[in-house]
UniProtKB/TrEMBL annotation:
It comes from Vibrio maritimus. Residues 4-109 form the DUF4440 domain. InterPro entries: DUF4440, NTF2-like_dom_sf. Pfam families: DUF4440 (PF14534). This is DUF4440 domain-containing protein. It comes from the Bacteria.
Length: 129
């Protein structure tokens, strides 16, 4: 589902991560995450973490999105990410999965997990970066 992919990519953007209204629209109040680090987060802790972020030249590149319907109001999104700095150095290769739920007329992120993975080929496409 394109809207879920677009919203996931939006959450990679510093400006969105700093916008409290957008965060409350995009992230479910019962949100849970198991981060790439293995640490666990809930809605309050992830918001605090995003509020403390500083602007950076590092970009999140994302690719290979697949969306699976678990129920008509529940979607599983899987994809890959890597960080690319301003010199072109690529790091933090990660496989990711997100569960999005339809709340009223809006999709909200309810669960997210990042797992470190082997290096993969960076694909340039309309999605990501």
């Amino acid at each position: 589902m394109e809207v879920i992919i677009e919203q996931e990519i939006a959450l990679h953007q510093f400006e969105v991560r700093q916008d409290k209204v957008e965060i409350e629209r995009l992230i479910h109040p019962d949100f849970r995450e198991v981060g790439r680090s293995g640490n666990s987060y809930d809605f309050k802790s992830i918001v605090r973490m995003m509020e403390a972020e500083k602007p950076s030249s590092v970009q999140v590149h994302s690719q290979n999105y697949e969306c699976f319907e678990l129920e008509s109001t529940v979607q599983l999104l899987t994809y890959e990410t890597a960080l690319i700095d301003d010199t072109g150095q690529v790091s933090n290769f990660t496989k990711r999965s997100s569960i999005w739920v339809l709340v009223g007329e809006f999709w909200q992120l309810k669960y997210h997990q990042g797992t470190p993975c082997d290096i993969f080929e960076i694909k340039v496409s309309r999605k990501g970066t």
